[in-house]
């Protein structure tokens, strides 16, 4: 039975050892003590994902496809999951790019709101890869319609929550289960949004904002449970980025882009490739002490 100590700390607490590596000052001191030691930068290796397996939902386009490409560039074998039966032309081009890089990008069709469907698919992917899944990026999401909170239709409200909240959970849950069973110290990244923290000015997106707040708290909750297994769970919250999702608003109202741009101190909206660095950091050992955090990348939108 789990006991409670005088400090209120549950006992026994599972303590993980601090990883010790020949990097940074340790590497400097090694070079100092051994003149024959050949030094080379280690920081790039810290981001590398050689022989790792990654899953990206919403991978057929937008942010998800860019994340898949980054993970391939870092050496991972990547599975993109999305709704269409067959992937689009950009995904197919990315599979050829991955092959030229010496790795591979694969497509699987699935609806993340179907818990059994996504769980079976992730088990299948694990089975194809000696039970190994190292990285999960849950990026599938929808915006819903823009409508006053007083009249927002229930079906659409439920649908946005189903994809953005349930779907993210079912994907992360399925990957976490595989990581835990295989004893892998994996990284799970839930794609939230700055809309989890601030309200998009003059945009009536009540279910979207609600769902994204839930995702941030979901990441913290999963991080708390999975930390003792060495599995890290963080959320990534982008600001305004031009993708198919935002094009649906920007292309209808040409003044919207300059309005959104005026809401951050950089005076512009972001591009998909501006999230490459943060996804590489979160997915890799370079962020090994980061869990339960929400990483905001918004061009400073949330500082005002
Ligand atoms: N673009 C932005 O400005 C922005 C900002 C903050 C957060 N986000 C988040 O980033 C993520 C990616 O968005 P994006 O901008 O690339 O949009 P997008 O519309 O280009 O991509 C979303 C992808 O999710 C897929 N998808 C939707 N429902 C699904 C389901 N039930 N099962 C499987 N796949 C499904 C879509 O088919 C699509 O390919 C979303 O979670 C979004 O909320 C985007």
List keywords for this structure.
single chain, 304 residues, alpha/beta, seven-stranded parallel sheet, two-stranded antiparallel ribbon, binds nicotinamide-adenine-dinucleotide
What's the layout of helices and strands?
Layout: E1 3-4, E2 10-11, H1 25-33, H2 43-47, E3 53-57, H3 62-73, E4 77-82, H4 89-101, E5 105-109, H5 115-128, E6 135-138, H6 154-182, E7 187-191, H7 206-226, E8 232-238, H8 244-250, H9 256-261, H10 276-283, E9 294-297
Parallel strand pairs: 3-4, 3-6, 4-5, 6-7, 7-8, 8-9
Antiparallel strand pairs: 1-2
The structure holds nicotinamide-adenine-dinucleotide.
Nicotinamide-adenine-dinucleotide binds at residues 57-58, 60-64, 82-83, 111-113, 139-142, 163, 167, 191, 193, 238, 240-241, 243-246.
> Rounded to an integer, what's the Rg over CA atoms?
21 Å
At the first level of CATH, what is the class? Alpha Beta
Q: Which architecture per CATH?
A: 3-Layer(aba) Sandwich
Predict the CATH topology.
Rossmann fold
Tell me the name of the CATH homologous superfamily.
NAD(P)-binding Rossmann-like Domain
Give the mean pLDDT: 95
SSE class: alpha/beta
- Which distinct ligands sit in these coordinates? nicotinamide-adenine-dinucleotide
Helical stretch tally: 10
Helix content percent band: 40-55%
How would a textbook summarize the main sheet? 7 strands, parallel
Low-confidence stretches: none
Please report the distance between the alpha carbons of the first and last residues: 49 Å
């Amino acid at each position: 039975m789990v006991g409670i100590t005088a400090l209120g700390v549950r006992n026994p607490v599972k303590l993980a050892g601090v990883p010790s590596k020949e990097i940074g000052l340790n590497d400097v001191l090694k070079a100092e003590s051994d003149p024959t030691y050949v030094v080379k930068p280690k920081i790039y290796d810290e981001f590398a994902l050689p022989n790792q397996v990654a899953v990206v939902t919403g991978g057929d386009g937008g942010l998800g496809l860019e994340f898949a490409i980054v993970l391939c560039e870092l050496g991972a074998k990547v599975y993109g999951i999305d709704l269409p039966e067959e992937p689009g032309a950009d995904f197919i081009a990315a599979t050829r790019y991955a092959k030229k890089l010496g790795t591979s990008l694969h497509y699987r069709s699935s609806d993340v709101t179907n818990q059994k469907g996504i769980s079976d698919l992730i088990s299948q992917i694990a089975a194809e890869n000696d039970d190994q899944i190292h990285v999960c990026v849950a990026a599938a999401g929808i915006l819903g319609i823009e409508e006053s909170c007083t009249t927002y239709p229930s079906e659409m409200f439920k649908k946005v929550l189903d994809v953005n909240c349930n779907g993210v959970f079912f994907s992360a849950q399925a990957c976490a289960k595989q990581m835990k069973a295989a004893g892998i110290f994996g990284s799970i990244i839930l794609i939230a949004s700055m809309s989890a923290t601030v309200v998009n000015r003059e945009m009536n997106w009540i279910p979207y904002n609600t769902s994204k707040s839930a995702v941030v708290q979901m990441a913290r909750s999963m991080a708390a449970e999975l930390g003792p297994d060495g599995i890290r769970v963080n959320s990534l919250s982008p600001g305004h980025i031009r993708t198919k999702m935002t094009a649906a608003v920007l292309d209808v109202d040409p003044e919207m882009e300059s309005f959104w741009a005026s809401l951050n101190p950089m005076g512009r909206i972001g591009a998909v490739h501006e999230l490459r660095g943060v996804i590489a950091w979160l997915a890799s050992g370079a962020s090994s002490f980061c869990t339960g955090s929400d990483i905001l990348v918004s061009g400073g939108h949330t500082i005002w």
